[in-house]
Amino acid sequence: MSPDLFRISGAPSNPSRCDFASDEIPNLSGEQLDRVMKRMYNELSIEDRKFHFRTYHRVFVGKEAVSFLVEQGIVRSRPDGVVLGERLRARGDFHHVTKEHVFHDKELFYRFAMDE
Predict the structure, then answer these.
(1) Is-contact 85 103, C-beta < 8 A?
(2) Which of 33, 85, 103, 107 has fewest C-beta within 10 Å?
(3) Distance CA 109, CA 55 (A)
């Protein structure tokens, strides 16, 4: 997938990086958010995980998602990754497994809506 698909006006000219800053994230189009979601879904480690003797099926870890967003150049910093992750969670793309948390850069489990 071409990195240019993630570029928005005002983003740096380096086409290998997306570099969404937190002030740009509220203005991302639905198409741009869909592309980020597709990459997250295809590239994050989604697996069954255990916590307190309970198994949560097909989940990813918030901290790993933030690392992915930063390492792939989709956002500039971990706080920006949280802003983008929360935007995606709020629009219903994924949720905390018990629906008790917003998106955090922590060892919390989240499940994509398409895996429900």
Answers:
(1) yes
(2) 107
(3) 11
